[in-house]
Design goal:
Blueprint lengths: L3 H28 L8 H22 L4 H25 L9 H4 L5 H41 L5
Helix pairs in contact: 1-2, 1-5, 2-3
Length: 154
Amino acid sequence: MIGTSAAAAELTVVFGICVLVTGPLWARKAWGAWWVWKDVRLMTTLLLWFIFVAYLFVRRFGGPGSARLAAGLSLFAAADVPIIYASVFFWRTQHPKATVVRSLQKEMLPAFFVSLGAFTVLFVALLLARLRLESSRRALDAAQREADDAGLFD
């Protein structure tokens, strides 16, 4: 059985893979290196991805008490997000400062906000589809149990 938080975590892992794959493609072109292990933003983003993968494993295979452990992992992930954002201000890093939106040229603002909106809508649409799929799976499982109890599969 999967809830909204687990479905969102699944999508976060997928979107995180997209970031962790496309980011190095940009980095190679911009800085001449695919990945710099000393870059705090890269490492904390990778850590966040691993936290969400661990969250999903704990939810799926954790057994008794896994809900509490998963909740603790989600709090750890929430604490990592501001560190990722602030990393470019506190540490010397290859990434530019997080002032891109404020310093973006006016001609680029519509493209930025359309992209932001499109990815938000995509995430919400995929989340709703995943929840609907899980609801259908539960209904099918219940129907199969009822049919089995009624002796229809003997």
